């Protein structure tokens, strides 16, 4: 845990606990929200190729997860950490244009 706290630049075990809670809530809720969003946007995907269906789910879940991570980071007073985390992650996957430095 000490190494993780150093890597993330946090000081207390409580803050580490809150960050883990935020990740857990965000992951679970994004999976729950994705299904109704897909049904609303595209209808039933049962007749679709399974590979295409999973690709579509991943493309839908990605922005939902990112938004929820910032939302719950704000609710749990860890917005600064999650904003920096998102910024670093999105830059690594090639979306540097979203941020000014």
Strand-residue proportion = under 5%
Radius of gyration: 16 Å
Mean pLDDT: 89
Largest sheet: none
Q: Outline, from the CA principal axes? A: elongated
Q: Would you report the number of β strands?
A: 0
Q: Classify the secondary structure makeup into a structural class.
A: mainly alpha
End-to-end separation in angstroms reads 31 Å
Number of contiguous helices: 4
User: How do the helices and strands follow one another from N- to C-terminus?
Assistant: HHHH
Fold and architecture overview:
The protein starts with a helix and ends in a 9-residue tail after the last helix. With 101 residues, the protein is mainly alpha-helical. It has one domain. The chain has helices spanning 2-8, 13-42, 50-75, 79-92. The mean pLDDT is 89. 76% of the residues lie in helices and 0% in strands.
Short account of what is shown:
With 101 residues, the chain is mainly α. It has helices at 2-8, 13-42, 50-75, 79-92.
Q: Features of this protein?
A:
single chain; 101 residues; mainly alpha
Write the layout of secondary structure elements.
Blueprint: H1 2-8, H2 13-42, H3 50-75, H4 79-92
Helix pairs in contact: 2-3, 3-4
